[in-house]
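Example complex used in Figure S2.
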Amino acid sequence: MTPELLPATEGGPGEAPADDNGALGRRMAGWGVSLFQALLPIILGMIAAAIVLLILGKNPIAFYADMFGRGLFNWEGLQDSIIRMSPLLLMAAGLIIAFTANIWNIGGDGQFLMGAAMVAGLGPALMESTPQWVAIILLIIVAFLVGGVWTIVPAYLKAKYTINEIITSLMMSFVGINLANLLIKGPFRSDETTVPQTFVIPYEKLLPDIPGTRIHVGVILAFVVVLIVHYAMTRTSFGMRLRVMGANPKAAVHSGISVFWFTIIGFFLSGALIATGAATEILGVWGYVRADWNPNWGLTLFALVFLARLNALATIPIVFFFAIITIGGHFACREVDLPDDFILVFVGFILLFMALTEYLTTGRIFRRMPGDLIAIRASQRRGAGDE
Amino acid sequence: MSDVLTVEFFSSLLTGAILAGMPLLFAGLGETISERAGVLNIGLEGMMLFGGYVGFVAALYTDSSAVGFLAAIAAGMVVALFMLVFCVRLGLDQIVIGIAILVIFEGVTSIAQRAQFGTTYPRLDRVPDIKIPLLDRIPVVGDSLFTQPLIVYLGLGLCVVVWWVLKHTNVGLSLKAAGEKPAALDASGVSVIATRSWAVLITGGLAGLGGGYMAIVGAGIFVPFMTHGAGFIAIVIAMLARGKAAWVIAGAFIFGIAVSFSTALQITGVSVPIDLVNMLPFVAVMVALILFARQSVLPAALATPYKRGTL
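Predicted assembly (698 residues):
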């Protein structure tokens, strides 16, 4: 907000600084609302999950101490959380492209596992025959293409016959999850293990670490991709066209955008980035895939990205938090002898409260809101007016 | 092929189709009602899982499958209350809330099962079959189609009731209006919110019953995540059936056959990888969607919360 743009009637020069302070204050209030909006669902989700823990006879305080102690306030655990961000960020980037174009790609898990199976299946042999970097780049390209190809049928059905892609991409996801298992138990199966899994890429041939840490360079790739996607979606004509199509397909047709091709391309890129996330996870952490391995991140990320309002930058802290929950929660669940599925309950509650917080702060039905929330909404509106 | 296509093969194919088809039928019927009313129930699978778990526990402790089924219906309705409050009353995003419900109840049933039974999986007694006199003597289909637990006949009867209500009553008309043009329903003096509310509750009850059938009749045990995507297949069936109960029956049993096909093959000695078995129904859905692509029509106001003056 520049002083030159202030209307002359707002007062003499003496009052200008005060007004600036007011703007700053309002902006601070805007940030405060954002922070409140981000933290409230997490706190409410923790309280709800704590009640479940109490019912199960576990100590919630010890559980959360374990979770954050392991996932955030511990150098080893923090590194694990940051490493976990690599596949999650790439998946989020893929989902953002799809959602921007109003494509509901809900089949992320199938695209992810197909990418993982192909990388782990082809990786070991490729690593032996080609130099490490060539192999890594080839494998990432393979994952990119496999993930993209896996979206073509839903994309075509949507573009040509307007068939709801929520259903088709989900069906393809289930097919992909099972096909990945078939591949791992069949052609890609290692004969060195009793449990079905692929051959292992030797540790020294995996993605190198950032010096001084255990964090592999795939994390950097993920951050770069998120920034590129953010730039592409907000500052390029390509992103603009996707957004126009997403907001109003009819308007897109009238402005000369090929809805058919943009649907195909948007869907393809979305699946491709999700599978690239799988490539960084396999090439950076595991080196192989076990049969029936399915981290199941797709659906949860789907909702989280949606609640970040498709803003790629805003997903970074949300993804970081989700990474802490998956890393620290896994540890905390083992400590109190709970199945890992408790994390699902926790994440589900957070989703529920995120949606609820969004509703209360941007409130669609004014009179039902408690008094202080109305005040927050009003201050947020003023804050928005400053932009 | 001649040694594969035996009487046992067809008999087990039909039995399996009913076993796998009934949960899809109940859940698909429920989803039909809620989609007609304009509520997309992505959390259907969560309702099925919770219904399956509660129904199983009730049947285990009371030694009565009937109590189990009633408990399953109640449990599904409890989950549906989340949809009712958050999506119908408050108008929050149906897909986000649906996913939240799904993951919460996937987790809740898994930890509850573990907390209660540890790593053991107690088994229920087989639910007694009721033979329909005379019809059960027909070769091949007699042993499979007409020798079933009571709940199967009740379920088919329920379909007829739903079909009749949707097609021939004011209630059915209100449902359709709530999904197609809520403002028109509102203007005619029927509350959109109330219509959608009870539609969602009935959906929950039916999905819970589907899950209960899966655990009590189908498997006889409860295993976490046992629905294996059945809730999503039910959503597809409902979408393809376009609100017609008869098509829901047809869809449910076609997918039931897809599921039981490989099991039936195994009985005749052909071994099929389990992943292929699990994959078949989804491939079948994709094929169905590609073949009948243009026929899937959804209600105009599906997944749109209703607020007076917006539509």
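Residues 89-307 of chain A form one domain. Residues 16-55 of chain A form the longest helix (40 residues).
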